[in-house]
From TrEMBL:
PROSITE patterns: CADHERIN_1 (PS00232), CADHERIN_2 (PS50268). GO terms for biological process: adherens junction organization; calcium-dependent cell-cell adhesion via plasma membrane cell adhesion molecules; cell migration; cell morphogenesis; cell-cell adhesion mediated by cadherin; cell-cell junction assembly; homophilic cell adhesion via plasma membrane adhesion molecules. PANTHER family: CADHERIN-19, CADHERIN-23. The lineage of its organism: Eukaryota, Metazoa, Chordata, Craniata, Vertebrata. InterPro entries: Cadherin (IPR039808), Cadherin-like_dom (IPR002126), Cadherin-like_sf (IPR015919), Cadherin_CS (IPR020894). The gene is CDH19. It comes from Bos indicus x Bos taurus. This is Cadherin 19. GO terms for cellular component: adherens junction; catenin complex.
Amino acid sequence: MNCWLLLPFMLGIPLLWPCIIAAENSKTEEVRHPAGSRLRIRRGWMWNQFFVPEEMNKTRHHIGQLRSDLDNGNNSFQYKLLGVGAESLFVIDERTGDIYAVQKLDREERSLYTLRAQVIDTTTGRAVEPESEFVIRVSDINDNEPKFLDEPYEAIVPEMSPEGTLVIQVTASDADDPSSGNNARLVYSLLQGQPYFSIEPTTGKIRISSKMDRELQDEYWVIIQAKDMIGLPGALSGTTSVLIKLSDVNDNKPIFKDSLYRLTVSESAPVGTSIGKIMAYDRDIGENAEMDYSIEDNSRTFDVITNNETQEGIIILKKKVNFEDQNHYRIKAKVKNPQVDAHLREYHTEASTTVIKIQVEDVDEPPVFLLPYYIFEIFEECPHGSSVGTVSATDPDQRKSPIGYSITRSEVFSVDDNGTIFTTNPLDRETSAWYNLSVTATEKYNIAQISSVPVYVQVLNINDHAPEFSEYYETYVCENAVSGQGLFF
């Protein structure tokens, strides 16, 4: 309660002592008399604070009263209100000093108004009191619901994370006064997301409460509610959604789709030929689903490589196969992930396996000579039809086709169906000591299947020529030559 106390007149000057009955703060101020003398008076000019609740619906809400003790009720004093908000938000009854709020106030827009009060003596038009500041504070009511700050929320957490793993922290803000009771004290709760997630009521930290498998479900929508007034009746609330995605860990080993693969390879296929593909399936994704294939092949005929794009295993021919030697193979393939973290090896204890049966396809191959080349000898001057030697070729296929033989571009030799080479003209070593022949073998069941072999024939010498002088010699002898005398050429 504010008052003005009338001090005794001294030196003809009426002194006013403004005071606050409940206030202890004071100060001493020096007052100068017009005649030049000075008087020290005790001032206690501090106004009580006024409070007005926000959001009041009344057109005139009484806040409090300003009144001077000099006011004897004869209506000679006039009270005035000055400052920001005066007349627009706050008015004062000029006669009684009663202050009213005439508009609805919002503490979140402005929580404090500093005004000035003045008392005028209407008979003199002079101020009875010096201007004084006082404060009107807007008191808070719980009129703001909590709002989440950083929406939308999204978090990523590895699948199979243990209970208690922190996922994300959500934070809500309440515009009400945190010093006014529980209006801005928030608690968090989970409306959707159990039993996999939980939230700390006071911090908004979302944690895992149960292990989750990405291969069963890879994302979850969690709905969080924030309530003010620590959740008491009448509390306001706000909600937000959190999208939680599970990132993959390598908790699944690759498994072959089929337990048996049947492949074929032609015996004519060159080394390096791709003869087929095998495929395993991994429920993981990305690098956790990369494959590494291997095979067990005692014959060392086949190999496997991994296609890094498709993650397929490609079976290739490591060395040539022959239907007549071996017409089928049985090998075993394995698959694993190339990189597995130590703490996840329990999921990869035994590699997946499959069986691959490979059938070798027979190809109609050309005849094969027993030797890569032949060398025969025959004496010159042998009669027509003399045997030089025999070449031999066979059909490597199962049907064993009969073989026919021929000699290419030779007028001296011929060959029969048994592969025996005969002379067709006399041979003269002195004319040609060697003959280079090419004998062709042809399958009679398929004349397109042919092969050739080189045959070298050496003509051996016989003593079929008398010695001859290289030139004609003419000799001379004297008529009287004696026995033993040399001749002259």
